[in-house]
Design a protein that fits this description.
Layout: H1 17-24, E1 28-33, E2 39-40, E3 55-60, E4 64-72, E5 86-93, E6 98-103, E7 118-125, E8 131-137
Antiparallel strand pairs: 1-2, 1-3, 4-5, 4-7, 5-6, 7-8
This protein binds zinc ion.
């Protein structure tokens, strides 16, 4: 797989294909336990609550809130030099699971952020193989 995007990309695993393929169609698919309806992220082959295969995939809207965040001022790799400062965040989907992501379309200044602020998904096509899930203020 040619990576014409100059940053590291996820390495697809069979259990996460539905997540990554969904993002290409601007859809967010997450797993939940079919016994207790508890959600989990990242995708796994088994339910993290019961260590069984009682999982199902459900499509969610991506409506979410800011769980926590950090403004990155120091590029972790050369390929991120043009991006700093940028925002890493943990985003809590309304259904419950927490997703590591970035907050975009906002000036990366602490005065612009509030824990619990409402967020919407942004689908960023980085190449023909990958669409990344990021978030912006709602
Ligand atoms: Zn379960």
């Amino acid at each position: 797989m040619k990576n014409d995007y100059n940053k590291p990309l996820p390495i697809p695993q069979p259990e996460s294909d539905k997540f990554w393929n969904g993002l290409k169609k601007k859809e967010i698919w997450v797993q939940k336990c079919s016994s207790t309806n508890q959600y989990q992220f990242y995708p796994r082959t088994h339910c993290i609550f019961h260590n069984q295969n009682d999982i199902e995939w459900v499509k969610v809207s991506g409506d979410s809130t800011l769980f926590t965040y950090a403004i990155v001022y120091q590029a972790p790799m050369h390929s991120f030099l043009d991006d700093v400062p940028y925002v890493n965040a943990l985003v809590k989907l309304n259904e419950g699971p927490i997703i590591p992501s970035n907050i975009v379309d906002i000036e990366p200044d602490p005065s612009n952020f509030k824990i619990g602020m409402k967020l919407k998904p942004v689908f960023v096509n980085v190449n023909k193989n990958f669409t990344l899930l990021k978030f912006r203020p709602a």
